[in-house]
Write a structure and sequence with these properties.
Helix content: 55-70%
Largest sheet: none
Strand content: under 5%
């Protein structure tokens, strides 16, 4: 029997219900296509996002405290098919207001478990929301990203680079530009793409600032980064 909206539910029970909702919808043909898209690295159930989200929504609203949300996300992350991780990211995003700066290390830990851009970028959005809220009471909350920028995992460094996406004019430009230069000589495609993405996103709000930064420091950035950063600027 479906529990009423907002009912208390143990994280493990929630994960069991998610499995029961998603498993019957598995599509082997689509699963192979999705696996191929991610270079044959990970198994899939074969569920597109609208189908998956509708099935999970059908379970009713469930509200966890921070510990419960993180536990449920961790349990979902341990399941092999990637759709469970996407569900975990959605869960964390819905509970982001209940997370605090002390939970950032746990989010970064999840990001390092069989990482690829699709799970890492989803977690980056959660990290960003937590940091932006945390900055209201702790102005230097983003120091956590200064540490992440030095991390051995390129995926954690990617999160540091893109955590301000969507911050608009609340963006810490000292960090945005400083991080871009700090990572600018890295050869990894996902890092170079992330730098360009972060700059392009901020250029929507300060095109002059990004234009000047690229003009001054373009030689310190990869061609891919410059191309991504200026894609919209070139259309103006």
């Amino acid at each position: 029997m479906k529990k009423p909206a907002g009912a208390a539910l143990a994280p493990a029970d929630y994960v069991t219900r998610v499995q029961a909702a998603l498993t019957p919808l598995a599509d082997a043909g689509r699963a192979q296509q999705m696996r191929a898209y991610l270079r044959e690295q990970f198994p899939f159930l074969g569920l597109q996002s609208p189908v998956r989200r509708a099935a999970v929504a059908g379970l009713g609203a469930v509200h966890f405290d921070a510990a419960g949300a993180l536990q449920a996300a961790s349990l979902l992350w341990q399941l092999p098919e990637r759709e469970y991780r996407y569900t975990a990211v959605d869960l964390l995003a819905r509970h982001a207001r209940g997370l605090t700066l002390q939970h950032i290390p746990e989010l970064l830990s999840l990001a390092q478990c069989e990482p690829w851009w699709e799970t890492v970028d989803g977690l980056a959005g959660v990290v960003g929301e937590v940091l932006l809220a945390g900055r209201k009471t702790k102005p230097d909350a983003q120091a956590l990203m200064d540490e992440a920028l030095q991390h051995a995992s390129l995926w954690v460094r990617r999160i540091a680079m893109i955590h301000q996406l969507g911050w608009r004019l609340q963006t810490d430009t000292t960090r945005l530009y400083g991080y871009a230069l700090a990572l600018g000589q890295e050869e990894d495609f996902f890092i170079r793409k992330a730098i360009g993405w972060a700059l392009r996103d901020y250029a929507r709000w300060d095109p002059k600032g990004v234009t000047q930064f690229v003009a001054r420091h373009g030689a310190a950035l990869s061609a891919l980064t410059v191309r991504e950063a200026t894609r919209r600027l070139n259309a103006l």
